């Protein structure tokens, strides 16, 4: 089975490209499911069908669509835990509605959208699943819960609870009642599902993330952060799609500066995301929707390539923690100690490499929060890899 996740800043074209990819896969005889958790219910608009609900509906031969209702998923899978935590806050005098808002951990609605994938993968219902993922990556953090908790969590949660246990701090010790058994069981089942989901998402043969960007500063910077985060989480990004590119031959002079600006941003993106597979996608004359237009778009993107192919399966860069030091390893073939420069500016690392034509190639890499208390200690290059060492 294959799982392809499209993510990126809002408005970059995640839904359209998810649907186009799903159509291409279905045309190649893969039984395919496209999933969206967008509250705007954009799948029905993209496919131009009356409704796409919380159960898979058939769009074409081999193609099904599902619009996840995160609130419904949350209620069915986590409702008892949420009610218990909210009741503790409510007993402390908080408004009941506010209690539920506080009890809701950030990213939980997205998390249960991802758990829907685990359900379909477990039952092997489809050959390929394509997910239109919300722009925020908060949910990915929860994939590390099983690794952080492990067997200790199973023992610990027997008397406190993994998710709900934090409410103990809001109660006097004398009045702290044991957490209900059904709440504990839900939490342990959730941890097991998270562990399975984590293995699925970090298996490069199964899962690929594809970053959607527009040729502008905001979406490129957003995608850089996403790339850094997914590298930290151990997930594979195999391609970057640069969407909404104006054709160079636009007759109206109004667009001249736009096309020039986009050209510089396209080159910046190619440098920033090297050596990932880059796809360039044009800006269409009209809104992309409907089966035929989405199919046309799929042919433009993939041509004779199979979208289920893993286009890249190595790390673009890697963070290695070694005691008080953190080493950032960046691929930079054909680079030697005399033709590159590295500088740190706050939470960014700027790398300048002199190419064979005498021009500087500049790459700006976001740094993880762990480097806030560290200083740039050493930079060296070995076998085409730049190693940047940070030390506390």
From TrEMBL:
Its EC number is 3.6.3.16. The keyword DNA repair does not apply. It is an enzyme of class 3 (hydrolase). InterPro entries: ArsA/GET3_ATPase-like, ArsA_HSP20-like, ATPase_ArsA/GET3, P-loop_NTPase. GO terms for molecular function: ATP binding; ATP hydrolysis activity. Residues 1-301 form the ArsA/GET3 Anion-transporting ATPase-like domain. Keywords: Hydrolase. Residues 326-390 form the ArsA HSP20-like domain. Belongs to the arsA ATPase family. This is Arsenical pump-driving ATPase. The gene is arsA.
